[in-house]
DUF1989 domain-containing protein
Amino acid sequence: MTTTIDLTAAPAADLALADGTVVDDAIVGERGPWSGVVAAGDILTIVDLHGNQAVDTLFYGAADHAKRYSAQATIAAQGNIFLTTGTVIRDQESEPLMTIVADEVGNHDTVGGACSQESNTLRYGHHTRHQHACVENFLIEGSRHGLGKADLVGNVNFFMNVPVDPDGSLGIVDGLSAPGKRLALRAEVDTLVLISNCPQINNPCNGFDPTAVRVIVTRPVV
Ligand SMILES: [Zn+2]
């Protein structure tokens, strides 16, 4: 996929969905992880550089990793299964961690979970056992913060399209995202954000071609 603008090289301040001082700016390579603490009040912009790329994401209280994202609390509080502008990312006590303040896609998933070597084997056959997967990214990157497998919970899948049919059945289908689509989250408390740029190649969540994304953190000038 190609774009007319080189979003990889564009100035971070131009790509960020919020004004302010750029305090972090990273390309998350295809199939790779990223993590960072987003300070309260700062805004994290995630850019789907090439389109149709699932960004599996977990959230933890930076000061207390026992506070962690809860899909159940987040869905229950907003009364809707999809995440978009206005969604408050909540921990298991329903306390806010971050708020989605802008979204150019329209809906993001939090029921599809993360891919793993084990689930790949079950879904796609034993020949996929060797393939790198999101759980491995979470474990590698999470280990830098003292997180292990018991700390992994149900995650958010930004840019991933998981429609829920009237009978409740789920699909993982071609994405709604496109090159350059962005969303932005404001940290309500200091939040550790753990990302797996999904390596999946067996279903359409990454267009069968995982690509890089970009994360930019901006601090509002007061
Ligand atoms: Zn994945």
